[in-house]
Specification:
436 residues; mainly alpha; 73% helix; 0% strand; globular
Amino acid sequence: MSEPIPAGRAPDDPYAPPVPAATPSVPLAPVAAGERVEILDVLRGFAIFGILLVNMALFFSPMHLQVLNEPALTGPLDALAHKLMVFFAQGKFYSLFSFLFGIGLAIQMERAVARGRKVGGFFARRMFWLLLIGLAHAFLLWFGDILVLYSLMGFVLLLFRNAKPKTLAVWAAILLAVPILLGIGQTGLFLMARAAGPAAVQPWLDAIGEFEQGLREGAAAAYQAYSGSWSDVFAARAGEWWLIFPFLMLNFTWIVLALFVIGLRFGKTRFFHRLEDNLPAIRRWVGPLFAAGLALNFLSVLLAGRVEPMTPSLATLGYQALSVIAPPILSAAYVAAICLLWQRPGWRRGLDLLAPVGRMALSNYLMHSVVFTTVSYGYGLGLYGEVSYLEGLGLTVATFALQIPLSAWWLRRFRFGPLEWLWRSLSYLRMQPMRR
């Protein structure tokens, strides 16, 4: 057990707020409603909508087509809607949610310091239970789960918990550079092999061709499996998770961890706790962030239609690099714009509707899977492969529009969402009071 921390600032952290003298007898407990930073709940609710917007197509069509960059679209309006989604949403909302995840660790650290407790064991326990929830989600509901990756990277994030904000900024830059450097290495090896002659490059091309053929066969099998019984769906879902999870780990581990670290940095400096003090900086940066984010994402979408995603080339390398840096920049622009709009009473009333959704982010995220797999899979309404992209967008908006009043109704009666209550009770090793 840690020693009591005297009144003053947290050790080695000049950005931490003054905290009262703490004693080890004060137990850790969830953040009370009056202690919450409401803008973070608003941003979390916004992120939940965007995540569903991006994930929607994967509920109704094979993920193999997404990897091949050949989404299942039925007409020009579908194609236009998909391009707009890629431009404005793809990669932006998991970036935002990852950023908020890092802030969450900083808040838990601050509360632990105020109570004279260590956060490491508690946070590790929290990640363990999130891992189990994610595995249950992946195998029983939907293969596209992100919680397993988040929990594993959460364990790694603990290594950064005592780093100073400047050190965190350096680590974030290094982590974001890793996938770009790996892409440079892969492309360099491929180009050297191609320069050596057809015999040298042919094994690469054969492997790429076999992988692409396997994806096309997998897509054909998915249409049949997800229209079948629960056991058919379970087998297909388990197989696809084992296929997609290494892909997620290879392509998103570094990015997610970097965004966790950036969030931890902003949490340590209490950026959102002192939002009014930071408004001048936000006003200065919102324009450049939008300009850079829109320009880089436009270039990314342009390159996406001109590259073979499985074949290394300079164009593919450029697309991969843009996929790393462009989404977080536009995501940061969204955050800045929401923070500024939130200062206006009319906008605040509207944006505050998102806060209950954000407070129940885990429950609402899993609710998406329950609703959309029930509509799509054979053991439900059986509409897999029969819903157009525009129809799916309509269902997305309708589902989220329902979650807004449902979340507010629930939180007027209960302290937590149902999954949040379970997760907290397991993490704190005691049943949390549920009713208000």
